[in-house]
Amino acid sequence: MPTIFRLLATVSLTMLSFGIVIHFVEPKHFPTIFDGVWWAFVTGSTVGYGDYVPLSTVGRVVAILLILAGGGVVTFYMATISAGTIKHEQELSKGTITYKGSNHIIFVGWNERTKQLLEMLKERNTHEQIVLIDKTLNNLPFQKHFLHFVRGDATEDEILQKANISQAKYVVITSDPSKKERQADQSSILTTVATRGNNSDVYIITEILTKEQVTNATRAGANTVIRSNDFMSTLFFHEIFRDEPIKPFDILLKVLANQQFHQIDLKQQMIGNTFLECSDHYVAEEQILIGIIRKGELILNPPFDDKLQKNDTLIVLSRL
């Protein structure tokens, strides 16, 4: 039995014993056993309401014994609770506590991307439960960031199990900014393999920096592979060759902050329609069709006359 429950049982048994004794010693002043137990708890906890007071010599001796014995037990019980609470909070901040929840999102890596993602989730009040796995942090105050921190290497089964990987809904694996690109990709792929090995159903989003490793990340079990370098390179290119620089970084990020990507299965009646015809349909629903996924390949902005095929998945952008 845990210490806290043993102490609680000891306190209860002690107060019950003194309550029964004082009831039989002074039945007039303590007409029921409950009155005696009430007096024992009030006296032993040093609250001292004074509504029940022993008057006889024997009763006062019982009260002295209660103060000496029961008071120490209650004080020790309260001190143990306080110390246990402080210890638990310290262990949470150190990342040594196993997460017990389910349907949560696991972030691998503490960096600017995960920090920004946390802020976005917080701003939209999604109420998602977040678990962070990181091996570089020694301490992360949970009161400040409102997440469950697990310290360790996400390639190890023990660490993933501490994050309750078997009950997770999503896993977001970010690249380690402290490593070279190839090493960071190898680490991300290894983490993907370990994650998929511990949960065959969880949706894995893996960040890859080099083009050569995209296929390996997919083979490792990633459902979605994000090449952040491609995105940033495209922004740099447009900024360099724009006649009137207007900070496309800021504009694009502001636009995307109020939009959300969705994957939609192609409707039966739209099979054979052109991309333009399908795009017009979603514009009427205040959504923008930006691409399709065909046979596992993402095609952004295909030709307008491209006819949609069975099993195509549409990528649309809509307001949050």
TrEMBL record:
Annotated signal peptide: none
PROSITE patterns assigned to the protein according to its UniProt record, in alphabetical order: RCK_N
GO cellular component, one term: plasma membrane
GO BP, one annotated term: potassium ion transport
Positions of the RCK N-terminal domain: 102-227
Topology versus the membrane: Multi-pass membrane protein
Gene3D superfamilies to which the protein is assigned, alphabetical: 1.10.287.70, NAD(P)-binding Rossmann-like Domain
Transmembrane regions listed in the UniProt entry: 7-25, 37-54, 61-79
Major localization listed first in the record, in broad terms: membrane
Keywords: Ion channel, Ion transport, Membrane, Transmembrane, Transmembrane helix, Transport
Subcellular localization, as worded in the UniProt entry: Cell membrane
Protein name from the UniProt record: Potassium channel protein
Organism (species): Aquibacillus halophilus
Lineage of the organism: Bacteria, Bacillati, Bacillota, Bacilli, Bacillales
